[in-house]
Amino acid sequence: MTTGATDQPGSMRKLPAGWRWARVGELCDFIRGVTFQKAEAGAKPSAGYLPLLRAGNISGALDLENDLVWVPEHYVSDDQRRRAGDRVVAG
Fold this sequence. Notes:
Elements: H1 24-27, E1 49-52, E2 69-72
């Protein structure tokens, strides 16, 4: 009944030959958002502060200029810093 396509268990969707279903966690790392003290956050750049993206910054294009929240850099781990090639998702 199959034509080289693979069924996902419980699904009617077919994949092209040579493809396979995978969980997102098998393909990438999830890095959660930054937890910070709201009283320490600001709307403007300051020395020792880093900008955080918010869900409103993520749409068809990534808006790195507007509606950023600035927090003391000690709240942002190395893993949470955006790097070339990263994908940003708001959920």
